[in-house]
# Entry
Amino acid sequence: MRRDEVICISGCSSGIGRSLAERLAAQGAKVYAGMHDLKSAPRLTGVEPLQLDVTRPQQIRAALAMIERQSGRLDTLINNAGINAIGPWEIVPAEVVRRVFEVNFFGAVELTRAALPLMRRQLAGTIAMISSLSAHVALPTGGAYAASKFAVDAFAESLSYEVRRWNIRVMSISPGGYATGLDSRAWRPTADSCGPYAPLLETLHAPPGAGAGTAQDAAEGIIAALDDRSGRLRYPLDETGGEVFRTLGLEQEFPRQALIRRVSGLAWWFDPREGQSDA
# Structure
């Protein structure tokens, strides 16, 4: 049970974020559910709604200040907010690509940066990035989203080595093809602008079928990853994800970590430091 654990989740208006907030609250956690627009946000049982547009630094600072004022600590931050854009690189406008990065990557970076001082002072914390299998396999017409998630995964890996000395755990969790509504809300080119790419778009981005996992399924997998204490960084959520990880060698977490310790020459930094926050 997560009785009294303090958790902040971004992107809780729908999909995986909403399911995560409700399930973690049902387990006894104090959940701050960040939402882009509280006026149109759904009512979630047992959670504290939080005005949190991750592209607005002032809202990020205000949200973290409120959590510290009310709860005094933050045990887990889940960077879940995300948007999608579907289209070949030749067609997707630059401003759309920038918007995807602003939400998916820079939003996660800035929210994490705001949370780190509190976690360092308390010498504990978990930071979970809700990434994607697209962070490891970039499909055609999904390049903007994949590039943003590749960036998120690199952020998570580098950050994990920087903050583990304060007993802060970083995770990168990679859902695959879940029916969360992300694609239905994605930017798409108009039919008359697709040109020779039209057959590609029609084939690759049909709506998920009846066999696709739900947002609730993804939330359960994410909670299972949060409960794992093996020290891994990256987590797939289903059989497809497991196949991708095995094919790319991503399940070889500990040899990779040992390699990074060796080639960086910074093994002295990576080891946790007991009772010293360096706040």
Summary: Strands lie at 6-9, 30-35, 48-51, 76-79, 125-130, 168-174, 178-179, 213-214, 234-236.
